[in-house]
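Aim 2 progress update. The chain analyzed this quarter is reproduced below.
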Amino acid sequence: MDHRLLEIVACPVCKGKLTYDQKNKELVCKLDRLAYPIKEGIPVLLEPEARSISMEEGR
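Predicted structure tokens:
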């Protein structure tokens, strides 16, 4: 994941910062506890496509 892209993308729900989860290949919003998939190298920043993450995962 390009770190320059991480600087400009934001959570579509709260407009907060996203972090890259290398293990699951997802962008994670810790505030909303949502993980957005990255498909074929492209982040899918649509709320219906996101999965909810547990408190432990969001740390």
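The chain has one helix and five strands. The chain has a mean pLDDT of 91. These observations will guide the mutagenesis experiments scheduled for the next reporting period.
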